[in-house]
Amino acid sequence: MLHRLKELNQTLSLYDVFSEEFSEYGRVIERLDASALMTEAKQIPYPKNGSSYLPSVASLEATDVAKKIKEAVFGTLDTQIGYCFGHNDTLGATEWHFSSELNVAVTPLVLILGKRSDIKNGTIDSGDMKAFYVPEGTVIEVYATTLHFCPCQVSDDGFGCIVGLPTGTNTPLDAPVDDPILFRKNKWILAHEENAALIEKGVLAGIFGENYKINY
Asked: Which domain does 59 fall in, by range?
């Protein structure tokens, strides 16, 4: 799959999460059995169009492995286990949190990642970003210093990605804030200049260059 993706996406630097290149963006978490989470997530029906994100899913949070994630990844902080799923094949935007994020690939998927340090004057060139293939069942930590957004599918069936974060992340702000790129609690976001839908919602355009589309 990785070889095929590289052949079809030659303008994008593309690796897998087991490569040395990923060590700057996150780490693979081994010895964490996420099969119970995946079983529960697969019961959630896909949206007819586009993608959906549920910050907190009770059936996921009720699993024994959710308790292990709370301790091992988030140091016993209150933790939400949610689900991002549906259909997406384009960079579109990038976001970051003041905390790491745990991802479990329910399906094979691609993450397009960048570094917060590459943001200059509120903008970033998409050419500074890299893509990483995440095989089904892989558990990863995405560092707080890493830019990321909605996963990209590698088949017409769509994608599914379990998301673990400190409780409250990605939920609506309680009141207006001065920071124009703080869009939700613990969620800073920049849209690609071509993403009219997000820009209309008030997200600032901050990504310039190719709006990468994952061909598969």
From this structure: 2-208
